[in-house]
Design brief:
Rossmann fold, 6-stranded parallel sheet, 29% helix
């Protein structure tokens, strides 16, 4: 069967070449379950891979896309039957293994989850790795013992995919959310998602004192670098910070003082290699607390043929919320 896919290859001078190609099932990996992919997403990591601006791809050639959703077409595994609606996020898709920016893909049976109600393949991709990561961050703060009413919870990079969904989830759970963004024009957007107030990211992006005024009961940080360090320095005694991103940088130019003098806990969130029982719990949290109307409001849809041109916009910070890829166009 022939289908369209986005394929990345490497030129002789080690530059990334992205092209939309037609291929057939014979080129797909030899794995247990073949999926008719109806929707995928475009994430920050995908944009890095497509543009070649980040060392994301570890196997050439590669179909990028860290997320996919659709229906099972063929299965050699008893857990999955043709017609099952499934979602895959992480597991090395789009990095080590062929990913979701295609109309068909073969995956390991253990990577699949059934799409829980009320989500469809399309809305599951509005969630994607970004929403799943946000849910993991929220669950980390909950396990830490953070309760609504304990104080303000900061979300950095709030207009991005992870940040937007974190705002919705935290607000739905009753927390008072403060959204940090470098795009002041998105203030109304963030307040509509549930943010109680919006602050300028410039308050966090420069080097600051090791300990600052105790402000945040908890933090979801998608940015890293000085932003994460300052957020930790402003977190209240016994508070918690869930760190999941490095949009500002992968460095951590700070001190141990917030951790040893205030007892702040820093949780690192890895969304790639997460056991399926924890994945199921995170999706259950979103099924209960992620308003589908707000999810749709934060989502933009593009076609598979548009992904290459759209990737630089995402890296430039010109895209808010979530980007769904309709593989049929």
């Amino acid at each position: 069967m022939s289908f369209k896919a986005l394929l990345l290859s490497q030129t002789e001078d080690r530059k990334t070449q992205a092209e939309l190609v037609t291929m057939d099932d014979a080129r797909l990996p030899d794995r247990d379950v073949t999926v008719n992919v109806s929707h995928s997403t475009l994430n920050f990591k995908d944009a890095l891979a497509i543009t070649g601006r980040g060392a994301v791809v570890r196997s050439w050639p590669l179909v990028p896309g860290i997320d996919l959703a659709g229906t099972v077409a063929e299965s050699r595994h008893p857990d999955w039957q043709p017609g099952d609606a499934v979602v895959v996020t992480g597991w090395g898709l789009g990095e080590n293994f062929w990913g979701g920016l295609t109309q068909r893909q073969r995956v390991d049976a253990g990577w699949l989850l059934k799409i829980p109600a009320p989500f469809t393949p399309r809305s599951a991709m509005a969630v994607g790795t970004a929403g799943f990561t946000a849910a993991l961050c929220v669950r980390a703060l909950q396990r830490h013992g953070l309760q609504p009413g304990d104080g303000e919870v900061l979300v950095t990079g709030a207009a991005g995919g992870v940040g937007s969904i974190a705002v919705v989830l935290l607000a739905s759970l009753g927390y008072r959310v403060v959204a940090s963004t470098g795009r002041p024009q998105e203030a109304d957007y963030l307040k509509n998602l549930g943010a109680a107030r919006v602050v300028d990211r410039n308050e966090f992006t420069q080097p600051g004192k090791p300990l600052q005024k105790e402000t945040w009961a908890g933090v979801v940080d998608t940015v890293g670098s000085h932003t994460l360090v300052n957020a930790c320095a402003m977190t209240r005694q016994w508070g918690a910070v869930a760190a999941c991103g490095l949009a500002q940088g992968g460095d951590l130019p700070g001190t141990v003082m917030p951790f040893i003098l205030r007892g702040v806990t820093l949780y690192g969130i890895n969304s790639v290699l997460v056991p399926n029982d924890q994945r199921t719990q995170a999706w259950a949290l979103m099924a209960q607390h992620l308003d589908l109307a707000k999810l749709e409001a934060m989502s933009t849809e593009i076609g598979l043929s548009e992904a290459m041109a759209y990737a630089p916009k995402l890296l430039a910070g010109q895209v808010r919320g979530r980007t769904i890829v309709d593989t049929a166009r």
